[in-house]
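Slide 14.
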Amino acid sequence: MENIKFINNKAALSNPDKYVGITIDVARTLESWKQSLYSFEWLDENGQIKRFEDLNGAEADKRRAVDDALKNNQPIEKPVLGIGMLDNVEIGSGRAVFLTLSTKGLKTMPVHIPVSCESDFKEFLAEVS
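Slide 15: predicted structure.
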């Protein structure tokens, strides 16, 4: 998993002054995202990421695309995260990337966040080693 080549997300590239790149701790970020109003699409009743076969068709297709990109050593777009109405992490773009890589045990991940949310993400930053 260490050889994943992340590239900038199109949303961040189209508005470079509005986004900043950070590296997040995947587990802490996932825990916050579980409060999302949209988490039911990817989480089971126990709050765990659904198995591939339990995802609906569109979400399964997105997960398959991430798996295929990984298998073929293709670059992966960084997810775009923000803070939602309930003060939890929301995934604006790249939900399948974030959650698929989470299931594969990735501990940290580069993402884009709005510059306006930078202070809100301090608790989700990965430890620098």
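Speaker note: DSSP finds four helices and six strands in the chain.
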